[in-house]
Amino acid sequence: MQDRAFVHDIAMKNNLTIEIKYHNGHAYSYSQVKVIGMNEGTKKVNLVAENEKDELAICFYDIFEVTIL
Predict the structure, then answer these.
(1) Burial 8-37 (b: 16+ CB within 10 A, else e)
(2) Are 32 and 17 in contact (CB under 8 A)?
(3) N or C: which end of the chain has fewer CB within 10 A?
(4) CATH number of the domain where residue 36 is located
(5) Against a cut of 0.85, is the pTM above it?
(6) d(CA 4, CA 10)
(7) How far, CA to CA in Å, does 17 sit from each of 25, 27, 41, 62?
(8) A Pfam family name for this chain (predicted)?
(9) How many domains does the chain divide into?
(10) Can you give the pLDDT at residue 13?
């Protein structure tokens, strides 16, 4: 879990695009996103989808894999 937090932090500070694998409630999804914030209180990561420019808020514990692109 520490590794994911580190990658999120680096991606946010350097405006890097990452690919995440996360559980959407029914199945696993993949998205290419930019990290715009992390909320320690709610344990959610705020993201902007690279393709649609939609904002997402995903629970940190629902993210299973993170890759810097």
Answers:
(1) beebbeeeeebebebeeeeeeeebebbbee
(2) yes
(3) N
(4) 2.30.30.520
(5) no
(6) 10
(7) 23, 23, 24, 19
(8) YolD
(9) 1
(10) 83
As a whole number, mean pLDDT of residues 39-50 equals: 88
Residue 31 is predicted with a pLDDT of 92
Query: Domain range holding 64?
Result: 2-68
Average pLDDT along the chain: 86
Q: Is it the case that residue 3 has pLDDT exceeding 90?
A: no
- SS3 for the chain is CHHHHHHHHHHHHCCCEEEEEEECCCCEEEEEEEEEEEECCCCEEEEEECCCCCEEEEEHHHEEEEEEC
